[in-house]
Amino acid sequence: MKKIRPVLIALIALLFYTATDILIWQRAFEANDLTHLAGTYHIGWLVSLAGYATIGLLLMWGDWKDCFYYLTALLISAFSGLEDVLYYTLDGKPMPNELPWLDPNPMIFEATRSGVLVSVLFWMVMLACLYFAMYIWKNRPARLQEAAAVK
What is the pTM of this model? Predict the structure, then answer.
């Protein structure tokens, strides 16, 4: 369980972060025609992400690998397009063909549905590789040595 702790906490933080995004943006800003305040909304959006990051770091304080992986996974998930995919999935709406607000994002391959999905796939593979390098690859020889010592 300890090895998946940063992954699990990052996933939970991202789900709550996305649900908050849906509730505030759609239910408050769009519903009340406040989209002209999008700049203020986005600042609040970043502050809430910083709060989720801080809470997770405090939960895992003392284990640098968990802290590093959690923070990396949360930020990549939030900015790689995964949050947008979850946004539409949790809201039960189809993802639009064009997502022009993602155009300036350097982590997004292309601001289209397929471009965002390719970006998400790429970044999730990168996170999986990082997880493997941090938690599995280095520990593999130690586990083999322990098994040989037991025999």
Answer: 0.85
